[in-house]
Specification:
single chain; 158 residues; alpha+beta; five-stranded antiparallel beta sheet; globular
Length: 158
Amino acid sequence: MKAGKFEIADARATLVGVLAEDGISPEALPIRRAFELMIEFFSKWEPLGVNLDEDGDGLLFQWGTYDWDGAENPLFEVDITRQLITNEDDEHDEEMHHLHWTFQYEPSDVTQGLGTGEAWFFAPVSLSHPFQGILTSPTLLSIEGMVVHKVVLEHELV
């Protein structure tokens, strides 16, 4: 993956464009490869307008079983999120943006045993940063053979 800079509002479009250059569709990747690419995007692509001294560029690895729609249809989610916080100035308030890459699975005894959890990382970092902990986590290792219910790549203003 090449390196570059991007506007926060264009985070999703930038990631999708970088992937498309290599013929990659975000929804068609296995979870491990998607997480490797998000880590690489975090390490090589610099967001414009964030304050790195105030943790304005973060990477969150999280998992757990959630029922977001309230329809009693919980799903186990494994997510890697790039959190971007804009600089505050006289004309603009600080804004928090999330670029989520979420993999959803039907709950099972395996996912129930994984519970919920999270790990945070903040820029600046390099690929030598201890991201191996994400890629070799019990969560990823346990779900690698499971059938994915749905993959979502979205950018939201929180």
